[in-house]
Amino acid sequence: SAAMAKHTKKVHITGKYGTRYGASLRKQIKKIEITQHAKYTCTFCGKDTVKRVAVGIWKCSACKKVLAGGAYTMSTPAAATVRSTIRRLREMVEV
User: Fold this and answer.
1) Are 51 and 39 in contact (CB under 8 A)?
2) Which of 3, 40, 62, 71 has the greatest number of CB atoms lying within 10 Å of its CB?
3) How far apart are CA 73 and CA 85, in angstroms?
């Protein structure tokens, strides 16, 4: 039939922007939007139910715990560094 295509071939989530804003910017936004809409594993109950509520606020729908994280991802590289540094310093104190 002469019906229009229902799926996007490679733009996926950024299809909503149409031809606006340029390909490079849409590619960057695609990466960000995929990570921010993804479900993450809860560190408390272990279920894949953590979703983004607002900028930097993540909530587990199973155990209702609210976590602070990155704007688009639940954990930032900086946070990971801080965690490992704190762990290392704590181990130094214990020994």
Assistant:
1) yes
2) 40
3) 21
Q: What is the DSSP letter of 51?
A: E
Distance CA(31)–CA(46), nearest Å, equals: 25
Q: How far apart are CA 66 and CA 51, in angstroms?
A: 10
Q: Give the gyration radius of the chain's Cα atoms.
A: 19
Buried (b) or exposed (e) across 52-61, using 16+ Cβ within 10 A?
Answer: beeeeebbbe
Average pLDDT of the segment spanning 44-52: 97
Q: Which helix (H) or strand (E) holds 90?
A: helix 77-94
Return the percentage of the chain with pLDDT > 90, whole number.
Answer: 87
